[in-house]
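I had to read the description of the data format several times before I understood it. For illustration, here is how one protein appears when written out as sequence plus structure tokens:
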Amino acid sequence: MAGKFQFYAFKLAGIIILIFLAQLLIPGFTELFLLDKEVYFQIWRFFTAIFLHADLTHLIFNLFGLVLFGSILESFIGGKRFLFVFISTGILANVLSVNFYASSLGASGAIFGVIGALIFLKPMLVVWTYGLPMPLFIAGVLWAAADILGVFGFGQTGIGNIAHLSGLVFGLLFGFYFRGLIVREKRRLRFDIDERAVRNWEEEYMR
């Protein structure tokens, strides 16, 4: 079950802000940890690139998505599982996108992974997209369509569309897994009988 809410999305946001300050203040910091061809010799970049951002606008958009969708996902599946989805989809998105971009950075792939998991868990959750309220699964289709257009050169440049799409796909897979897991947990709790309570009942009423 989900357990106590730990505000992991907010904590991650705080870490990302501190890292962004380091990017601004420490010369060469970003180049040490972003995703580029050096990743094949420095595999930690698949992880560290998640926490880097190109500029303030990039940072603000990603922090908004992380805090909003991350908090919702954590409330459904728990903090540790949310962290697993965020980090795993971020790394997997980077593993794919490094083959298409000279360099890249940002939490977008991980955030789309979180969104993908939410789509499978709560497809009818209402969100505002392009100025309209709509179910999350429809918003996901629109976001995916925009990224597909971007891949083929019909959208904005400088956006990691492939990272978005791959994060979304991996997030859907994790959402499928956790949905089944949650159902099994609920069934186990529903039919789990407290043996001590049964013995107490027998002692009191079956003497």
